[in-house]
Design a protein that fits this description.
The structure is a single chain. This protein is mainly α and 72 residues long. It has a domain of 25 residues. It has two helices and no strands. The chain is elongated. The termini are far apart. The mean pLDDT is 84.
Length: 72
């Protein structure tokens, strides 16, 4: 009885390992999306906006802030 139980457990482990390997073969490969011209323009605009925010922060930190609502 113990021998049969051991063989069944080893068979279950082997099947589990094969199932783990088989899922790698069955799953589709993820694809990379291509950047559209609109996405590139949005990224460039975001970069310009971030540069402006950085310049404003430097002005606030340096004491040359031009916005009276922020700099008191």
């Amino acid at each position: 009885m113990t021998d049969r139980t051991t063989k069944l457990l080893l068979l279950a482990i082997a099947l589990g390992l094969w199932a783990n390997v088989a899922t790698r073969w069955i799953q589709p490969v993820p694809l990379r999306a291509q950047a559209t011209s609109e996405a590139v323009l949005e990224i460039k605009q975001l970069h310009v906006d971030l540069l402006g925010i950085g310049a404003d922060l430097v002005g606030i930190a340096g004491g040359t802030c031009l916005n009276p609502k922020i700099c008191k």
